[in-house]
């Protein structure tokens, strides 16, 4: 339908269809109601009615992460729009391509404190890639085209489109624009050949090089190209929390995840490297520890699609601006050309040290002192039984770190978590969005009992819309990560972290009864010997969501750990225990 007279609301729905949107997660309200009327008749758009706007945002984010497509969320003005802010900030920090549509009060009411008026454009400006206020129905198609283009190109991010109610109700002629017409918006340049050559020269002469692969490898859809570069270079690599699965865990060059709760081999490799080749990584504080002590002897090659990230935290010796895939292809070409002339690489001693670290300090856990189930065991068994051809979405806290540590990731786009913002409540709606996008894959929401209670109302959305996710509640009856810090740094004064949901408590709520009330299958596992059978039972249920209450020990802690604000050299493998650095180069 092009050239036809329609309302602005109809133009919005047609624009979303022309932009390639297939699924919209949303909740109607007064200021967006004009758009919901034609949405009812849309032929190409599936609308999923959520129970809270934050759920719509996380679901759109999970959908985008799992599929690579732009996620779409929609809400009304005022509280509907402000309820989306957490999900918007979350997706923006993790570079998720997302378009958020909000209704706004009529143009004549803006600035009058009208009912359900909120300056959502002003509020979200710091946490979006871009945003628009549309008060003219004729501008809707071009604005939507711009929004999808900005959200999905360069460094992906969130674009908010706020549309006044009168613009939705006005008559207009729908014309889908051929060109985007974005003055001042430039896509990243191709990587500079001189920089690529300089990077390869450093790679060939280094003795202790390591790749630092970040979430940009996934966002740039560059896993194939980066793997070819890693394989050809014979250089070990680490994958950050946001890059888990970018390359397979089983790859012989994989040292693990770096950072506050990273593996000893990964953290130590970065600290002792003489060259770090960072692709799509931010050098954020959770990876670097105390910045002035991070990788003191390393030169830095920093490749990123966003020039603002390069040298922001750590000065780059070789800065490379460009798409991750193009950077990897360019470096591989230069590397192969150089190796045809000479191969000066000498990584043998380096690999000897790294192999020793991997063998001496593998990830693991000890039996709990209270005899209750170890949460790490639960997560490792979910990984083993459901397998790498599953999608795993976690909440935030201890269970997030254990999931990143003990799930075996062999495929990209199978690990969803809130990395930058650390949003409790992310898991269930994100898993829901991922399952909508990839319905043929098992999707697990691995959640904490605290996180789960923030967004579990989206189970209703899952049941009604036949989205059969599986929720594993790692129920230690507490705000686990906060409790761990209280244990280590606050003299075991557990101030307001007991949630009364597990062993020996009132079970408020009882998660199995809650699951039943929502129309889900509810299971509980309290003994080690029942873990496998419980997981297998959940795997066999595919006609509705499954919620499993895994009641586990509250005393289990995440190790290794680099305490906040100290050097990564002070990594602890257990309370008061640090690795013995016996073998140096």
TrEMBL record:
GO terms for cellular component: acetolactate synthase complex. Residues 7-122 form the Thiamine pyrophosphate enzyme N-terminal TPP-binding domain. Binds 1 Mg(2+) ion per subunit. Binds 1 thiamine pyrophosphate per subunit. Pfam families: TPP_enzyme_C, TPP_enzyme_M, TPP_enzyme_N. CDD domains: TPP_AHAS, TPP_PYR_POX_like. Keywords: Amino-acid biosynthesis, Branched-chain amino acid biosynthesis, FAD, Flavoprotein, Magnesium, Metal-binding, Thiamine pyrophosphate, Transferase. Residues 395-550 form the Thiamine pyrophosphate enzyme TPP-binding domain. Its EC number is 2.2.1.6. Belongs to the TPP enzyme family. This is Acetolactate synthase. The keyword Magnesium applies. It comes from the Bacteria.
């Amino acid at each position: 339908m092009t050239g036809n007279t329609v309302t602005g609301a109809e133009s919005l729905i047609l624009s979303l269809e022309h932009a390639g949107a297939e699924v919209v997660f949303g909740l109607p309200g007064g200021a967006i109601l004009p758009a919901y009327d034609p949405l009812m008749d849309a032929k190409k758009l599936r609308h999923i009615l959520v129970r809270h706007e934050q759920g719509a945002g996380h679901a759109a984010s999970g959908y985008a992460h799992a599929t690579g497509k732009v996620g779409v969320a929609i809400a009304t003005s005022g509280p509907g729009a402000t309820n989306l802010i957490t999900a918007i900030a979350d997706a923006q920090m993790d570079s998720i391509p997302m378009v958020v549509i909000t209704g706004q009060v009529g143009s004549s009411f803006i600035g009058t404190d009208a009912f359900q008026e909120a300056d959502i454009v002003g509020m979200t400006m710091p946490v979006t890639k871009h945003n628009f206020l549309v008060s003219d129905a004729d501008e809707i198609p071009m604005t939507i085209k711009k929004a999808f283009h900005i959200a999905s190109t360069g460094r992906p991010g969130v674009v908010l489109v706020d549309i006044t109610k009168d613009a939705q109700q006005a008559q207009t002629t729908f014309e889908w624009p051929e060109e985007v017409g974005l003055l001042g918006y430039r896509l990243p340049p191709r990587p500079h050949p001189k920089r690529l050559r300089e990077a390869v020269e450093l790679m060939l002469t280094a003795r202790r090089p390591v790749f630092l692969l970040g979430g940009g490898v996934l966002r740039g859809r560059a896993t194939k190209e980066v793997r070819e570069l890693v394989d050809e270079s014979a250089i070990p690599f680490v994958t950050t929390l946001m890059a888990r699965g970018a390359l397979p865990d089983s790859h012989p060059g994989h040292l693990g995840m770096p950072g506050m709760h990273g593996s000893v081999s990964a953290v130590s490799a970065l600290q002792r490297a003489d060259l770090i080749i960072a692709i799509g990584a931010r050098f954020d504080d959770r990876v670097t520890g105390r910045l002035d002590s991070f990788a003191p002897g390393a030169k830095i090659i920093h490749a990123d699609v966003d020039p603002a990230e390069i040298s922001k935290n750590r000065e780059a010796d070789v800065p490379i601006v460009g798409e991750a895939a193009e950077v990897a292809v360019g470096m591989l070409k230069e590397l192969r050309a150089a190796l045809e002339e000479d191969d000066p690489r000498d990584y043998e001693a380096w690999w000897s040290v790294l192999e020793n670290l991997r063998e001496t300090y593998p990830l693991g856990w000890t039996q709990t002192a209270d005899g209750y189930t170890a949460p790490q065991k639960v997560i490792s068994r979910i990984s083993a039984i459901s397998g790498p051809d599953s999608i795993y979405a976690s909440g935030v806290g201890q269970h997030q770190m254990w999931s990143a540590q003990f799930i075996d990731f062999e495929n990209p786009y199978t690990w969803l978590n809130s990395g930058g913002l650390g949003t409790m409540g992310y898991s269930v709606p994100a898993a829901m969005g991922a399952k909508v996008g990839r319905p043929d894959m098992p999707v697990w929401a691995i959640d904490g009992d605290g996180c789960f209670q923030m967004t579990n109302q989206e189970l209703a959305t899952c049941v009604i819309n036949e989205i059969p996710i599986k929720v594993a509640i790692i129920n230690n009856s507490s705000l686990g990560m906060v409790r761990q810090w209280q244990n280590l740094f606050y003299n075991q004064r557990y101030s307001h972290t007991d949630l009364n949901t597990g062993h020996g408590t009132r079970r408020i709520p009882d998660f199995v009864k809650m699951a039943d009330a929502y129309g889900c299958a509810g299971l509980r596992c309290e003994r080690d010997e029942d873990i496998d059978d419980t997981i297998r039972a959940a795997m066999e249920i595919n006609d509705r969501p499954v919620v499993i209450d895994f009641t586990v020990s509250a005393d289990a802690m995440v190790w290794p750990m680099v305490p906040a604000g100290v050097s990564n050299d002070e990594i602890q493998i257990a309370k008061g225990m640090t690795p013995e650095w016996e073998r140096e180069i």
